[in-house]
Amino acid sequence: MSSFENSGSLDGQESESDQTGDTSFSFMSSEIKANKPTENMSKRSAAAQELILQYYCQLTEGCGNESCDNENCASSKHFRHKQSDNNRLALQAIELSKAKASLCDRRPNKISRLPTNDEKDLTSSADEDKLKSQPVGMGAKSKIPSPTSSTVDYNSILLPSGSNTSLETQYFTEDKIISLISECQSSNSWLKLVHQIGSVFNSPELLIKSFRKDLTTSLTKGGNTSSQDESTVLPDPLCTSQTSLCSNKDVFVTVDILSVRQAFQRLLEVPDHPFQGALINALTALSRTVEMELKYHNILERQPDYINIFIIVMEIPMLHFPEYLECAFPNICKVIGMLPVSTQAKLAKIWSSYGQIRLREMVQSLQQMITVKVINCEGQWSSVLRLCDDMSITNATRVLKILYYASLLGGKMDSVDLVEEELKLNEQESIQELMQGAFGIEPKETPPVREDPLGKELGVKVINCRKPLIPYEEFINEPLNDCIDIGTDYTNHRLDPEKKFSFVPYSFILTTASKHTFMYYDNRIRMLQERRTAFVQTLVHGGAPNPFLRVRVRRDHIIDDALVNLEMVAMDNPSDLRKQLFVEFEGEQGLDEGGVSKEFFQLIVEELFNPDIGMFTYNEDSHHYWFNSLSFENDAQFTLIGILLGLAIYNSCILDIHFPMVVYRKLMGKKGTFLDLYDVDPVLMSSLKEMLEYSKDDFEDVFDQVFRIGYHDVFGNSHTYDLKENGDSIPVTQENKQDFVDLYCDYLLNKSIDQQFRAFKRGFLMVTSESPLKQLFRPEEIELLVCGSKELDFHALEEATDYDGGFAADSPTIRNFWKVVHEMVEDDKKKLLQFTTGTDRVPVGGLSKLKMIISRNGPDSDRLPTSHTCFNVLLLPEYPTVEKLRDRLLKAINYSKGFGML
């Protein structure tokens, strides 16, 4: 970490790790240490890590002094960080080390426990030295011997001389652990417990036999207790999931999870955790043994219960402790990531039954490890030291993916019948589009979307999950997104996805802004490919080169001109829609470098969504537009809107479109259901919900409804529709009310607009069919791509703005400018964005992602400010007063229209 390398107080200091060669606890993995450019940097980094660890332990454990007055110590009554989680405490530890804050003198948890008098009588001098080296506190600076083989002789290390070294090691049960703890407490010696933990967790065979469930209740028909076709629901008092996937008849669990948790809880209550060193060593050795078994012995096919090892180990509540983050936890993640997809799918199904509380704890532990690894090398990630090459980060991400699918499985999923119906519908639509095509031609067959292997094995798609157990946002790691090299990662994904790690298949960990950058690279490459193809065709067939998608329009006939231009392109060669867009306004000199396209989209959207045209209806309650099922416009108009939506995403333009979320779900292949109705018509949904919740006997008298519905078109004319044949003679009752609601929603969201939406979707897919849109984004994120963010944070814009031409952040004119901007009402702020960037929408990631430049445009003048919307440049004369600047700026943003050459 660069801030520590420049610290004079740390220069020249050597950690004990450098002096003795022992493995010391630190946040940085051994792989990263190996990449240090110089020995001195390694020593300084090690010293900095040790200092950070001391602050972290002080924040998490305290110094043990009840009268401590250090506000950065957990033992103090004035402790400032009581509500912080471990991730925030880790960040705070780094800040305290930078500020050289005071450390408490008394830190008993960092002092290795010496043998008691009774132990001294039994322990030889050689064994005593080994005992002293064992860590006993959560924050202890441990010296764990790195095992050189897959087994460790814990008898020789941990047992005193003269004891029975042939003590029989047995597998664990909850009762045995409780008995061991009681025995050790009564004898005031924890050696037996330490020995047993080291032996059991060092041996895959003993760990598989541990915590086995009582299978007497599983002796069902045939008496086959080892069948993989039987299922057992995991006993979990914390489970809050309404959909338990362990009832899927394809997972048989022999581990008593409840017993495992209770046993680990008793171990966690043991003072100072004297078994910690043995457990860390054992887990490290265990992971090496398991790795060899998986690679060379095909152990999972020969021993199905081998999965018990991963179930038990992931239940250890101390995995997120700093000591485990150095070696033990990363190694466990490594072997879990090596598991075949079928075994990972079994783990996902098992973990999906754990419930929200336990699943969140597992996710947070992995996120903490990733965060610590990322922050530990903050400022050093570059083309040489990359996130995708750090094994600790990549392995934790692989395990996080299993938990991600477990969260989906344990959440609220669409019914199997609905998913199958949507699949058939999408197949039929594909056949029909190939037959009918767009504008009367057949589009070329597009390559299938690459499916995630784990999702395919589980038969689960993200789009089919209405509400996961853990919100999607909790899987995103912000520090990782701040440091990721998206260009390198995208290259790995495109060129060698089998050998090089890429975060693209693990898009759940990425922010929408990062994924948008990935797609931006992909779209630009496709644009270059189309441009290259156009030049080759020019050389072969002759004619003028046509490397761009050129659209020439008149402002007063923008709809007609755009429709004719795009229709001709689609009829001639639909792949030309994937070229870079180049818009020209007739009679104007503006050269389109992005800004002209932005205004083109804004103007055409305003025209198409004009209520006078009648293509869409506007709901005053939801503030959303919906397709008019009785529109007089032909399919070409709706196809045009679909093309425009696709072009906006493809060319990174933001539109002022107010569609309900169900539109984006339908574009992803879903059908509209009752749960989607709120954004379309909240009043109607409230009425239908009241009907479903009504349980009294006078239902028919209260609602007096039949299977015929009535509605009005945009011109006020009344229409009726029978949800069933002879629907006017079928009353809605308590028994069939759910059927009525489903049919009503299906008609309103699907059947009534089928023709219009099919044309709209066809236009959208003409542009985006080869894009990684479905692979990377959820419907909520697609809406963000189209409409932009809703937060107008101009303070973030101020921090991200650059200055040119003689202006600086502290220039008087600049200070006056931001004072005027922050005093503006929201409408004027949007106009300023429109004037400067060509759109009043906020880009994905917020205004901090908008790189605006304010350039000095000469001395004081009566001229108005001008802008280059293609490059987000505001040209501002050096107005001497706030009043003049406010007057000139407001006039510019309120009366600007058109493009001219300066």
From TrEMBL:
Entry annotated with the keyword Nucleus: yes
Keyword Cytoplasm annotated: yes
Major subcellular site: cytoplasm
Keywords: Biological rhythms, Cytoplasm, Ligase, Metal-binding, Nucleus, Phosphoprotein, Proteasome, Transferase, Ubl conjugation pathway, Zinc, Zinc-finger
Residue ranges with Basic and acidic residues bias: 116-132
Organism, scientific name: Biomphalaria pfeifferi (Bloodfluke planorb)
Biased composition range(s): Polar residues: 1-12, 20-29
EC number: 2.3.2.26
Protein's recorded name: Ubiquitin-protein ligase E3A
